[in-house]
């Protein structure tokens, strides 16, 4: 994956060429691949601004992705050159907001737009903190999507059914020692019928990350649908004979 990096006006910009391993059978960019690009872009930009992983770890704090909303206007294809931009919008309530925009090679057409909501967590206490090393001058007020991602739940009128069980293993785990956020989207896409994912590219994704999942834990996936919209919720045991939500995602095809 070739990358040309530009940074100006508080917006971090990379030009990328889509590799084969980030595409599906239709040679279109996978949603999980977009999420991987976004996570790496966010980390690179935050590091430039002085509040990246290495900066936060000094105060025993870390960024935790809580919510994400992506609209795919057109999925880029294998070998296509695209532009991906990100910028942070500062705090809003408990969250810190960061947006993304992917455009075509000519930088004229939007391919995907996204907004994310992040929390800052103390790594020792696992509690929320406001100790983010933000500089007000680094904020950009542009909106890729006008409103932050809201709460995602399976609608009460939709009957959820067991879809599969996934045991978290080596390929799921990231440098923080738990399942990477992008893998939740991969599990969710795998839980939808291949007849759907093969014939209908994903148009929109909303996801809430509710609880981390550790290596060797088993995630029970539940699926519900309403027309071309699917809801996937991952649940893990809470240690008291019940289940708690690890994530919930809404997928519109």
Task: Write a concise keyword list for the protein shown above.
253 residues; alpha+beta; 4 helices; globular
Ordered list of secondary-structure elements with their pairings:
Elements (H helix, E strand, L loop, with lengths): L2 E6 L2 E7 L13 H19 L3 H5 L3 E12 L8 E12 L2 E10 L5 E13 L38 E7 L13 H11 L2 H6 L4 E6 L8 E9 L2 E9 L5 E10 L1
Antiparallel strand pairs: 1-2, 2-4, 3-6, 3-8, 4-5, 5-6, 7-9, 8-11, 9-10, 10-11
Low-confidence stretches: none
* Proportion in β-strands: 35-45%
SSE class: alpha+beta
Q: How many β-strand stretches?
A: 11
Number of helices: 4
Describe the main β-sheet briefly: 11 strands, antiparallel
Q: Give the N-to-C terminal Cα separation.
A: 27 Å
Mean pLDDT: 93
Helix content: 10-25%
Please list the strands of the largest sheet in the order they lie side by side: 1-2-4-5-6-3-8-11-10-9-7
The Cα radius of gyration reads 18 Å
The secondary-structure element order is: EEHHEEEEEHHEEEE
Query: What is the overall silhouette?
Result: globular
Describe this structure in words.
The chain has 253 residues and is α+β, with helices and mostly antiparallel strands. The chain contains 4 helices and 11 strands. The chain has helices at residues 31-49, 53-57, 181-191, 194-199; strands at residues 3-8, 11-17, 61-72, 81-92, 95-104, 110-122, 161-167, 204-209, 218-226, 229-237, 243-252. The protein has an 11-stranded antiparallel β-sheet with strand order 1-2-4-5-6-3-8-11-10-9-7. A hairpin with a 5-residue loop joins strand 10 (229-237) and strand 11 (243-252). Helix 1 packs antiparallel against helix 3 (181-191). The chain is globular. The mean pLDDT is 93.
